[in-house]
Amino acid sequence: MAAAFDDRDGVIWFDGALKDWRSTNVHVLTHALHYGSSVFEGVRVYGGHVFKLREHSLRLMFSAEQMGFEIPYTVEQIDQACLDVVKAQKIVDGYIRPFAWRGSEMIGVSAQQSKIHLAVAVWEWPSYYSPEARAKGIRMVTTKWRRPSPESGPVKAKAAGLYMICTLAKHAAEAEGCQDALMLDYRGLVAEATSANIFMNIEGKLHTPTADCFLNGLTRQTIMGLAKARGIEVVERFIKPEEIKNASEVFLTGTAAEITPVGQIDDLTFVPASMTDLLTKDYEAVTRNHKAAA
Ligand code: PMP
């Protein structure tokens, strides 16, 4: 197993400076740790180039705003922090984790005076799912945990608190020998996986659930653009779980997951085929050639 995340060499960008990795700590009485007041991003570096850096930094700012706090840095400074830490860590292909959180000035539900912190770490992370699981298509099981309604939380934010249900769902799926869980939303409609969006090839068209109560992933948006550029009709709509049986191919998209073929959801099986292959190649091309990025 790789070294634990608190026991690695190098530096982490923390509140404006590069600090030694092992000693970049927060106090145990940090608001974010008790009340989930933190937001984060996941960004990939391909061949030394950070893919969609500005979009990720903007989403971090947006998530913070949704959580009712303001990051005390500009979007340009967040971009620069990512670039500085990638350079310092000499990462060519990797994953950047920028995150912002409420500090330890106040412990209690109210946190009006809390200071907002920002940190950025980066590490090498080749594939989110194991290459073996990915080649066959990952196995998924529908979880009982549902994506909450927009009235019950900041559902469009990449906010740490929302991942509580994702970890519960993912652990339940792993206990059944699966790699991920299919999450329905509060209405019982197909939503997404625990950290990736979902797409289906239904009769040659690319169907994906309307992102009205979960993250409208940047990869999701890229894939929709790539599909349209290939003349594939993209259908964003509400999808009922009983419609999944009509899909011939299913795949997940996400910054970490990239395009991951799905081989099984509950009792249904799928074989990755031409649409998955084509979009995977196109996605590889845009991530490695940022000038052509959709
Ligand atoms: N949904 C969830 C819950 C996620 O955590 C992610 C990963 N950020 C996604 C979807 C995909 O988003 P993106 O393509 O922007 O990485």
Helix/strand layout:
Layout (H helix, E strand, L loop, with lengths): L10 E4 L2 E4 L10 H5 L2 E3 L2 E4 L2 E2 L2 H14 L8 H14 L5 E9 L13 E8 L7 H6 L1 E5 L20 H13 L4 E5 L5 E3 L4 E6 L2 E5 L8 H12 L4 E4 L11 E6 L3 E8 L2 E2 L4 H15 L6
Parallel strand pairs: 8-9, 8-15, 12-13
Antiparallel strand pairs: 1-2, 1-7, 3-6, 4-5, 4-6, 6-7, 9-10, 11-12, 11-14, 14-15, 15-16
Helix pairs in contact: 2-3
The structure holds 4'-deoxy-4'-aminopyridoxal-5'-phosphate (PMP).
Low-pLDDT residue intervals, each spanning 5 or more residues: none
Percent helix: 25-40%
* Largest sheet, strands/sense/barrel: 9 strands, mixed
- Reported by name, the CATH topology of the largest domain is D-amino Acid Aminotransferase, Chain A, domain 2
Ligand inventory reads: 4'-deoxy-4'-aminopyridoxal-5'-phosphate
| Rg calc | 19 Å
Determine the strand fraction and express it as a percent band: 25-35%
Key descriptive features of the protein:
2 domains; single chain; 294 residues; 7-stranded antiparallel sheet; 27% helix; D-amino Acid Aminotransferase, Chain A, domain 2; binds 4'-deoxy-4'-aminopyridoxal-5'-phosphate; globular; 9-stranded mixed sheet; D-amino Acid Aminotransferase, Chain A, domain 1; alpha+beta
